[in-house]
Amino acid sequence: MQQGSKLSERKKKILQYVVDDYIETAVPVSSKSLTEKHLQNISSATVRNELSALEELGYLTQLHTSSGRVPSADAYKLYVSELMVKDKLSDGELDYIKKIFLDKADNMEEVIKNTTKVISELTSYPSVGITAKDNAEKIENIKFFRYRKDQALVLIVTEHRLLKDNYINVPESMSDEQLSESETVLSNMVKGKTFEEICCLEPELEDNFLGYKNIFVNVIEALRAYMHSSDDDVITEGEDKILEHPEYADVGKIKNFLSVVTKKDKIMSLLTEDGKDIEINVKIGSDGYEDIPEDCSLVTATYSANGVKLGTYGVIGPTRMDYQKVVAVLENVGKVLESILSNR
Amino acid sequence: MQQGSKLSERKKKILQYVVDDYIETAVPVSSKSLTEKHLQNISSATVRNELSALEELGYLTQLHTSSGRVPSADAYKLYVSELMVKDKLSDGELDYIKKIFLDKADNMEEVIKNTTKVISELTSYPSVGITAKDNAEKIENIKFFRYRKDQALVLIVTEHRLLKDNYINVPESMSDEQLSESETVLSNMVKGKTFEEICCLEPELEDNFLGYKNIFVNVIEALRAYMHSSDDDVITEGEDKILEHPEYADVGKIKNFLSVVTKKDKIMSLLTEDGKDIEINVKIGSDGYEDIPEDCSLVTATYSANGVKLGTYGVIGPTRMDYQKVVAVLENVGKVLESILSNR
DNA sequence: AATTAGCACTTGAAGCAAATGAGTGCTAAC
DNA sequence: GTTAGCACTCATTTGCTTCAAGTGCTAATT
Asked: What angle do CA B331, B335, B341 make, to 5 degrees?
């Protein structure tokens, strides 16, 4: 990977203009257009020499000998990390982010859904996200709600979440009092324990369950299933936004794109990584990530609040993507999210 | 609207073959191909005469003078109601339906999600559905679960459902005992009442709330919000399946299609109607429904179990749609659904 | 040594005409 | 009522030319 500093200032400037223009117009950029728009004081021939050098260095490519230049994956990466002028969001956009999260920050599900939604709406690219599911998260309370003779909803309160999608079977012969008692016993037992610790319990082998063994087996089974289910943790939003970009005028490409975005396990593995707070990460398909289509980029940020990792969220779109906007949105969403969740 | 019986048997047969072939191949069908595939005993000239007559009657159209014939909206409607040979699903497909619903029939949400999912997967078209939200559904029980100092989850058990997505604010000053007492009072009060009755209550004006007025106001507010929210009741699945069909090779068309399918209020109004049990209903875009794109069809069925209407589900796709398969899937899903939910 | 003007060369895109062929409609015979 | 036969239509394909945008290279200039 090339170091940006190896390039002369002029080369950097020219490369920046090429990427700027290409992102804006989607048309390969020519030496002539560069001198007309940005570099009136040097001639197109000089620019051609520079472009040729940048091509040699691997930052630019040509579709054919007589076409303008197009940035390479390396160029985009350099652009995001060094060349790009950082964008600021408008006040309206900032207000929009704040409003969304203030309106609906009651439960984690809403927050997470809104995160991908906001990102997708403001960037106009499909967004993806994973919720960090923390094995070390402590359980505070467990409650059963029997809503049918043979079935109960299991409500689990943790440090950061309320889980309410787990169900267990309850023997019809069991009385409400017995169920309530088992709830108390189990609740006391799990209080302060982490998911990991609880999943490792082997109720079959223990004695202190006061006869509620099968209930406990069911609950632990449900917890294990929850911990190992990866599906619900991947959220995508605005997949159809990809259609609005000119490089996706071809149905084959759209299919290819969607076949990746809809594969939750692939998204999962792409987003799972140890990023620091709101550190922007760019992955480009043509750069060896086989789960990202050739002409796509994935730009992500990892969010935390109160030192707890919330998850990794980002945008997936054409390599020719409005990185200025995307980075600005990701950074600001992170800030708002953190500030809102911190003063809970 | 033409009556099928006005057509001679031979015309019906020919029209059926035309629609069959066109659905299969997506290519305008010619007199020659008809005589070769289906009508070896009559000449292509005779078929041409019949086709010409069917065109006169409004069942067929030509793209240009020297192209084959394409069915009109009327032809498709006649095809579905009279001409089409009813398809049977394979044992594998039937097992698939049963398995899905048996695995996850615990809660209504799952059932509903799986309904659209199964329909979409088996037909390979996008599916849509609305859950019948019955004003007259009776509430059996209400429970509060306080998971944070200032907030509680409201669990509502009705005849057919468990609602668990409503939250209320709780004054921090309120003790757990007080909340539990308010729960008992409220639960007794609503037991056996319908949503409609409860939404009409005016807690501000009543006295018998033992000082829990603001909790009750909050709950009723949440219930009203739930009853009036239409968003959650519309479910769509497999929108991307539309890409697999050759008539959607054009991105403009795809956009147009998605702009309709993603508008929940439009879907809502299209699906809201008084259909009988598993009665198949076909709406064709070019037939005056302005919310359906020109070249699209919407095929729906309304499902019930134990005499209670569950909702209306269906498929939206190109007018040139595999109606045989779609109708077979819709009918069978309805049957399985009914049988599973009836012996609860 | 860097810059630039000038020119030859490449190449995709656009436009056009001719050839192709699938399909119809119509007429006259069966 | 059916059918063979033929003229006619029209979208599609193919090959060809022209056009313009853009580069690379060389030689002159600063």
From this structure: 140
